């Protein structure tokens, strides 16, 4: 299912009236320059005898080893990786500060959901001007849809997070259940698992992390952010989202999910190791985290994500781009390196081996390591059998906004009240939408709520 997608121009992102000073405030720093780099003349590729030096800021481990693979065969373009903290842990502020000072790296790791904010700050090079559209067919449609805005391309997909249902067969067998194919079946299975012991749950529902809920709504077909004419339309209370909110609100009321901790927290690991947590609906990168569960080798399997009966076959959590930042002196060469890193067999294998990236966004290669059966997951070839199809079953109509983190924070703050103040999840979503609309207005953006 691939609905039409209305791309957003930077002018629309700005709300047709937000000046560059206000855009800088939105990004948390001054705009890198008074002139939009994407309106300036193209920067020509370096001449034949010149060696180009590129810098790449990211929080990926051992990224330099990937660069070294490239550097050994490409003396004309040399890439140096510098580690920075994760984006919201200080990495983004470091990038914004460098951009505002007229510097910064050539390439920066920018999560998909942060791309619109960087665009508002004039922080990214439009790579379409350097031929990026010529390689669009090499990437999964859903991944590419998150970097293409109007006629521009503002990053190269680096990794994604299609979702599946990780589970312990022994826990499901003890409850007399099987991996669910729908969310209704998931509820029935949750009831069965709860009946096996007062501390036993199928899954957790983290009230302090809105990312899973967002992914579930996205899978159902929700579209929270869009542009209509000269204003942003916020639609977090649409029918699909409220259906998901009501579903999990009832699951919490019926004590079918553990709300005490999120997945991959210390409490979750202890419960998973003892069989008190039987499953987790999570992204492709969750496999490495599950492998950290004590004594879990051979005890977990992976099945396709359960569906809502409509909408999409899977969803996504996480994922990043490798974006060329505004002060880059060699955008053409940066694009050449990034396409190699994210679509060539050599580049993808190196990114998996050294950096442990999430799902490769390339259409035709998932990585040699991921083509092999997994000893940990009982010999299952789950990457080919589950995640490769899941990457093609995404909501390509979904767009993030320039205030994505604000929206997630509002949801999380209100969701906590489900546990502490008995607020319903549908009411929490409505309150969060009001806060998000106000946040847009506070930033000078033209906005209205759809409902």
TrEMBL record:
Highest rank taxon of the organism: Bacteria
Name the UniProt record assigns to this protein: Extracellular solute-binding protein
Taxonomic path: Bacteria, Bacillati, Actinomycetota, Actinomycetes, Micrococcales
């Amino acid at each position: 299912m691939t609905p039409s997608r209305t791309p957003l121009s930077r002018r629309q992102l700005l709300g047709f009236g937000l000046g560059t000073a206000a855009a800088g405030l939105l990004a948390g720093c001054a705009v890198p320059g008074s002139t939009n780099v994407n309106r300036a003349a193209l920067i020509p590729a370096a001449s034949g005898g010149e060696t180009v030096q590129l810098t790449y800021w990211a929080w990926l481990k051992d990224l330099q080893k990937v660069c070294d693979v490239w550097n050994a065969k490409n003396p004309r373009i040399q890439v140096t990786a510098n580690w920075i903290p994760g984006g919201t842990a200080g990495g983004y502020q470091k990038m914004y500060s460098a951009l505002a000072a007229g510097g910064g790296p050539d390439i920066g790791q920018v999560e998909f959901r942060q791309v619109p904010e960087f665009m508002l700050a004039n922080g990214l090079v439009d790579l379409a001007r350097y031929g990026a559209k010529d390689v669009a067919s090499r990437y999964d449609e859903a991944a590419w849809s998150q970097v293409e805005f109007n006629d521009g391309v503002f990053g190269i997909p680096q990794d994604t997070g299609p979702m599946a249902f990780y589970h312990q067969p022994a826990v499901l067998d003890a409850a007399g259940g099987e991996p669910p194919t729908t969310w209704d079946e998931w509820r029935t299975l949750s009831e069965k698992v709860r009946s096996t012991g007062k501390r036993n749950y199928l899954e957790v529902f983290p009230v302090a992390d809105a990312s899973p809920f967002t992914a579930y709504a996205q899978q159902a077909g929700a579209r929270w952010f869009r542009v209509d004419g000269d204003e942003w339309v916020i639609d977090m209370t649409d029918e699909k989202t409220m259906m998901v909110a009501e579903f999990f609100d009832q699951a919490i009321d019926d004590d079918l999910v553990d709300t005490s901790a999120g997945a991959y927290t210390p409490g979750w690991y202890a419960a998973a190791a003892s069989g008190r947590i039987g499953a987790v609906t999570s992204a492709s990168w969750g496999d490495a985290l599950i492998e950290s569960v004590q004594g879990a080798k051979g005890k977990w399997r992976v099945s396709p994500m359960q569906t809502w009966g409509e909408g999409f076959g899977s969803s996504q959590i996480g994922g990043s781009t490798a974006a060329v930042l505004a002060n880059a002196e060699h955008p053409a060469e940066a694009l050449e390196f990034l396409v190699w890193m994210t679509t060539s067999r050599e580049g993808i294998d190196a990114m998996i081996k050294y950096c442990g990236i999430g799902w490769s966004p390339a259409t035709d290669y998932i990585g040699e390591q991921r083509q092999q059966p997994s000893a940990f997951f009982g010999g299952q070839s789950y990457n080919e059998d589950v995640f490769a199809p899941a990457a093609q079953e995404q909501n390509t109509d979904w767009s993030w906004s320039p205030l994505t983190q604000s929206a997630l924070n509002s949801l999380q703050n209100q969701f906590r009240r489900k546990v502490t103040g008995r607020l319903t999840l549908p009411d929490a979503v409505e309150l969060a939408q009001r806060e998000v609309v106000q946040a847009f207005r506070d930033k000078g953006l033209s906005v209205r709520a759809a409902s």
